[in-house]
Each structure stands twice: as structure tokens, then as C-alpha cells.
Design brief:
The structure is a homodimer of 326-residue chains.
Chain A lengths: L1 E6 L3 H10 L5 E8 L14 E3 L12 E4 L6 H9 L4 E3 L8 H15 L2 E3 L8 H12 L3 E7 L2 E2 L1 H8 L4 E10 L1 H8 L8 H4 E9 L5 H9 L9 E6 L2 H7 L5 E11 L5 E11 L2 H21 L4 E3 L14 H7 L2
Parallel strand pairs in A: 1-2, 1-4, 2-3, 4-5, 5-6, 6-14, 10-11
Antiparallel strand pairs in A: 7-12, 8-9, 9-10, 12-13
Chain lengths: 326, 326
């Protein structure tokens, strides 16, 4: 049995707790929280500890899954915990991955632990598909589309607009752009041509709706470069119809082969997820298995999904996989 | 530079020759053929040798890519050549993979070579996607659909029917079945519900068309379990409209997460290939790079796509991959 620790108990941590139940070779050794453990009730009655207690549990946990945020939690926590544990995180600030990798690698090499960072679906499964497709079709072009799905960051940005009580933002890939890519035309697509942004906004009583809408659609970085629609709805409607955290997207590579590049090929990977955090958690748990095995084989230091032999993710052995899945 | 040998020069071998040109870290050291080398003209003026000459070229070739057939060539050739070379093959008789693996492993472990078998898209990229999706969503169901594409084996079977001059058979996935799977309904699908078979047949002059059609649609193993359509066309039309070797398909996993399994997720991988052999060749070439690297790292014996860390397939180094693709 692989003994898993969950470090941070929000949506992601709860998702990990659920996913462990689907993997009979794993048990949940404990949940670590910043809150008062006595106040935290887990979904499966797993034991809850203060985060400070983790340092005393190095012998009771095989892999610690970090479930904090990329902005401030993981840059600090992953290197810290890699001193004592094999760790897996979902660090997703793409631009800062090289720096995070270097920080974690320094520690993990020294401690002899295995750390797998940036695990999830993007970065994660989408990255893997970009890598495989690019290696197989070197002369081609990659496209990543996101959605339809909820962007937490964009929803938060809308909530900070004056007069807004609540909001939910969906990122939506543009069908015409998807079709053009799938046709093998290798189009050059602008930000605006790839995605639209749909905002469902609950205004505070008496707020100036036109002003809110104007402020949203012109917000730099978040909305100004997109075709954005704003729909005002009631809090009841938001709670009823926009409660879920769905997401997904598409990674498509279009490439040529043949002595005169006369043949075109389309490789497409897509996800349609009812729950973004639960799917991410499921990926984290599979990579926790890999971290455990890689450490047993002496493969220490910082790794990413690019470094992990696929078989290490599966609960089944090589002979069974070859017989049933190959 | 990785020096590649091509063993067998049919459609697959030619595809490998083309693919090597897209990979600047590789050179084609030689093509090995059963035919008289003087009669074989390669697409890129690569040197051509008799297959018997291969044994003398162990120092001039880093990876031998085997481009023969799975029925009789590869079961004999892959173990034979793994005595002297790192090898990659596309052995695709799913039921005999465990036996082939064992035979190749025996030799490769002893010779200290790296052999990667069953490389291509199914087995190959499709297998990988079945493995990844199953590891991430353990509670779910896998579906593989093939097509639309030409089945060489079924086309050959039709050509053996009395009165048939030529034929081309397409395997076509049933749209309703694909839609049902994508909906998350996890349907149980029979062979007939998943694929149809479209046959384009050139009859010999004076042949009994009704008899030919009847014999095709009732042919056990090949057609009897499918809804099969037979269309008689002229040789000219076959040559004009059915000359290509397109193929492709879909691997879909539908799985549940959540404490009450309340959330559904769909993972879909699809290929749309203008040329089945050229795409397979492109996969073989990427795995030749991996075989070369794994051997340098002492990872000897028989391997499959399940054992190969994804990064080994890419011409780029780890830091670059993390920065650009993760």
C-alpha cells in the first residue's frame, strides 16, 4: 500500500481524497491543513493534522500530494516538503516552471526524494500530448484551445469590479477556429480568433450595469483582447445554473509527411471535464504512484510528466498492460 | 547524429526514409532489402544493401528500424537483429505481443541492446492513450474506434473472392456510437454497432455480381459481424478515387469522479491520417531516438511504448521542453 498525505484541503485536496478511494493500492494517511484540525471534517473521515505536524510524519507517508495554490503556496511548500517526502504538485504558472523546477530539484537531489511538479491537465496531460505529437510530426503546428470551462482567475477579476456581487466566467473555444485547425489549413490565429469569454454577472442593487459591462470588456490582460459577452443574472440563477466547475479543451497538432510533404495528419487530444479540480486530483494521484515507484528505483530529484515512463502510472504490472492495453 | 538502418523497403520503409529527413539529429545509414540492391532506387539516394549484409554493419548503425510484416517477418527478424542492433518494430498482432516480447527480451538482455516493439499508432499511440486515461480515471470504460480508413487485410480478403479483380475496403466508425460514448452514457456496444465496412469492388468481366456481394457480406471473421456495403466500380475509378491509404480512429475513456461518482469526464484521443504507413513510420523514427538514448543509459532488453519516458522521444532537451511545452 502506498501511503498518501494531502497537504492543503480545498477543492483539490478533496478531489485527491476521492481519487484515492478509486485506487486500491493506496491509503490516505492524513490530511494537513492550516485550519484548526478539530474544525475540519473530511469526506472519508481521514485523520486531520496541522501542517506543522507533517515534519514528524516522514516515516508514515510515502508521497505527499500538495494541494495549495501556485501563486504563493507551492513555490514555498514544494521545496520545503521535498526535504522529507516524495512530493507531487500541480504548479501551473507556466512562465515560472523552470525556476520552480530548479528550486525543487536542488532539494530533492540532496534529500534523495522524488518530486514530480506541474501535474494536472495543463500543465500535465496537455503538455504530454504536445510533446508526443511534436516528436512524431516534427514538421507541423500545435494548437491548444481551452474550454468550455470556468476560469477562476477571470471570475475573480470580475468580482473585483465595483458594483459586482458575484460572477462566473466561461472561456469558450471558437468553433470556426477549431474547424480550421482540424482541416489541416494550419491557420495563424490571434487571441481573439481562438476563444471568446462569457461572463455571468450578479450586480449589486442600484449598480450602474453599463459601467460594469464597459469595465469588464475593456479590462486589460483579462478581457480586452477577446470578444467578451456580459449577461446580468440574479444570484439565484448563478447559484442554480453556474455552480459547477467544468473545464476542458483541445490539443491539436497538424503535420505533414511524405517526400514532398504531400500527406497531412491531425492528432487531437481533448478533455471534457465535469469537475476541473477532481480531474486534476485524479492525475495527481496517478503520478503519486509513479513518484513512489521512481523513488524505489533510485530516480530522485525533480521530474515532470515528460520524465515519467507511462507504465509507472498504472496499478497493473507490465505483463498485464502489454496483454490488455497494448 | 543517430545512424538509422531500414530493414525492409516497402511502404513502411519508405515512410521511415521520409521521416528521417524531418529529424536533423538522424541520418539514414542504409536500406536493407531482400531484392537485388542494384534494382532498388530509394527516394533519397540512400545506400541499399542485401539483408545478409546487415550482420557486418553493427558498428555503422545505431538503431535498426524493422519495416517488415507482423505475420512472418518480425517474429523472426526482430529477435535475430536484436543480437546486434538496437531495434524498433511495429509488431501489431495484438494477441501475440506477449510471446513476441518474451522472444525479443531474451535476446536483447543478453546482447545488451534496447528493443522497442509494437510501435505505431495501434499498437502504439492508441495504447498509450488507453494506459494514461485508465490510470487517471480508474472507474471508467475504454472505447477504441478505427477509421475512417483502409484495411489492407480486408481489402486482400475481398480480392481472394472469385470474380474479383481488385478491391478497397474502408472501416468506418458509426457516428451514433461515437456520440453515445462522448455523452458519458457508457454504452455496451456490439461489433456491429461500432463500425460499418464499405467495400469498393472491381469485378472481372462477366462475373456474377450478386454472388460476389453475397460472399463478401457473409464472410466469417471479416464481414459477417458487420453491416457491410458493397459498391461495384471500374478499375479506373478505384485507381482514381481510392488510391490513398488513409486511416485513423478514436480512443475514448469515459470515467467518474467524486465522493458519490457524481462527475463525469471524457478523455478523447483521435487521429486523422492521410497516410497510415507514413504516420506509423514517423512514430517508429521518434522511438528509434528513444531506443538510442535508453541504450546509452543502460536500459537494455525489450521495451514497449509503456516503458519509454516521453522526453526521450524529442530532439529537444529537458530544459527546453519544460520551458516551451509544459
Amino acid at each position: 500500500m502506498i501511503r498518501i498525505g494531502i497537504f492543503g484541503y480545498g477543492n483539490l485536496g478533496k478531489g485527491v481524497e476521492c481519487a484515492i478511494q478509486q485506487n486500491p493500492d493506496m491509503i490516505l494517511a492524513g490530511v494537513f491543513t492550516r485550519r484548526d484540525p478539530g474544525e475540519v471534517k473530511t469526506l472519508t473521515n481521514a485523520p486531520v493534522y496541522k501542517i506543522e505536524d507533517a515534519v514528524n510524519m516522514a516515516n508514515e507517508i510515502d508521497v505527499m500530494i500538495l494541494c495549495g495554490g501556485s501563486a504563493t503556496d507551492l513555490p514555498e511548500q514544494t521545496p520545503q516538503l521535498a526535504k522529507l517526502f516524495n512530493v507531487v504538485d500541480s504548479f501551473d504558472t507556466h512562465a515560472r516552471i523552470p525556476e520552480h523546477f530548479a528550486n525543487v530539484d536542488d532539494v530533492a537531489v540532496q534529500s534523495g526524494k522524488t518530486a514530480i511538479i506541474s501535474v494536472g491537465w495543463d500543465p500535465g496531460m496537455f503538455s504530454l500530448n504536445r510533446l508526443y505529437a511534436g516528436a512524431v510530426l516534427p514538421e507541423g503546428k500545435d494548437y491548444t484551445f481551452w474550454g468550455k470551462g470556468v476560469s477562476q482567475g477571470h471570475s475573480d477579476a470580475i468580482r473585483r469590479v465595483e458594483g459586482v456581487a458575484d460572477a462566473r466566467q466561461y472561456t469558450v473555444p471558437v468553433q470556426e477556429a477549431l474547424d480550421a485547425v482540424r482541416s489541416g489549413a494550419n491557420p495563424e490565429l490571434t487571441t481573439r480568433q481562438k476563444h471568446t469569454r462569457e461572463c455571468f454577472v450578479v450586480a449589486k442593487e442600484g449598480a450602474d450595469l453599463a459601467k460594469i459591462e464597459n469595465e469588464i470588456v475593456n479590462m486589460p490582460n483579462y478581457f480586452a483582447d477577446y470578444d467578451t459577452t456580459v449577461t446580468f443574472i440574479s444570484q439565484e440563477e448563478l447559484d442554480k445554473n453556474h455552480k459547477g466547475i467544468p473545464h476542458g479543451g483541445f490539443v491539436i497538432r497538424s503535420g505533414k509527411t511524405g517526400i514532398n510533404k504531400e500527406n497531412n495528419h491531425i492528432i487531437e487530444y481533448s478533455l471534457k471535464l465535469d469537475s476541473n479540480p477532481e480531474f486534476t486530483s485524479s492525475v495527481l494521484v496517478a503520478y503519486a504512484r509513479a513518484a513512489y515507484r521512481m523513488n524505489k528505483m533510485g530516480m530522485v530529484g525533480c521530474k515532470t510528466v515528460f520524465d515519467v515512463p507511462p507504465a509507472y502510472l498504472s496499478a497493473f504490472d507490465g505483463a498485464y498492460l502489454r496483454k490488455t492495453l497494448l
